[in-house]
Amino acid sequence: xxxxxxxxxxxxxxxxxxxxxMLEEPRPDEIxxxxxxxxxxxxxxxxxxxxxxxxLPAVLGHEGAGxxxxxxxxxxxxxxxxxxxxxxxxCGKCENCQKGEAGYCLDFFGYNFGGxxxxxxxxxxxxxxxxxSGCFFCQSSFGTHALATERxxxxxxxxVPLEILGPLGCGISTGAGTVMNALRPIAxxxxxxxxxxxxxxxxxxxxxxxxxxxxxxxxxxxxxxALAKELGATHTINGRSGDAVSTIQRLxxxxxxxxxxxxxxxxxxxxxxVDSLRLTGVCALVGAAALGTEVSLDMNSILFGRTVRGxxxxxxxxxxxxxxxxxxxxxxxxxxxxxxxxxxxDEINQACADSESGxxxxxxxxxxxxx
Length: 371
Prior knowledge:
Layout: E1 2-9, E2 17-23, E3 30-39, H1 42-48, E4 58-59, E5 64-71, E6 83-86, H2 95-98, H3 108-113, E7 124-126, E8 131-132, E9 145-149, E10 153-155, H4 171-183, E11 190-194, H5 198-210, E12 214-219, H6 222-231, E13 235-238, H7 244-251, E14 257-262, H8 267-275, E15 277-285, H9 299-303, E16 307-310, H10 318-330, E17 340-344, H11 348-357, E18 362-366
Parallel strand pairs: 11-12, 11-14, 12-13, 14-15, 15-16, 17-18
Antiparallel strand pairs: 1-2, 1-4, 2-7, 3-5, 3-9, 3-18, 5-6, 6-10, 7-8
Helix pairs in contact: 4-5
């Protein structure tokens, strides 16, 4: 057993508490990682509040980055001392995984939200032997150590600051990948991003990288809109100042945008993202709403060649996409680190509150930091 300190949520919407846990030794295909930095994602908060029913008590966290300390007997991808980013889990065996579409793994929910390994076991236990749900996104990285699988670790360049890389495992890859992997806009096209949080801002940076020439950011936070302009948006719209759809129509000569992203999880905003499309335009839904959330759309609008589609994890293959984003960061073309605010592990509840209030964009916990 490996002794670690983790942030545990015991019940629905309760505060995280730091506690000492025992982490099992890695099985043949597993890897123990000492966490250097872990981002807090909207999905962590959604699960804390039980909008997705991961069993509690649980160790959450799914944007971890750290140093490999132990590997299972069958692992060949990494060795102790390697720097890694932890991505999402998938089976690797189903039809979609075999096609390179691991984000749509037929058991995606089980591997990422089930709270256990596929055999029902969990690697975390309290000191008195109580079972604690783990394996969240095949990592549960809100703590000093995480247990991942060979499939969801991505080896990265040791010259890059490891503490900033965790968000590439989910939120940043989701925003950037939705543009670069799913929508694939050609140079010169237009895109509107509804929600200038970390996912939306990553999408804006990616839209600039691929050559979109009209990049519109929509939010209700003026500071976020100012940052969106700095990161590549050509126009910004405050959703409280008027009709975003009519403003987008005006900015696009009455045609609408080629592409839109909905990052807020708000049905009314989703409707705006669809209504802002031109004929044959595509709206990508990436915001994670509570199960059962519904939206109303104009069927005749969709009839005229418009497409609405969901996108999971930016449709990225982490082993190739995360290094690509790191290369763009090195060149100064994808400055995702501007979104990050650091916290210590024992400040996790404050970090969550600051994220929910909009005070910060991407909180990153540093478990190894001391006061």
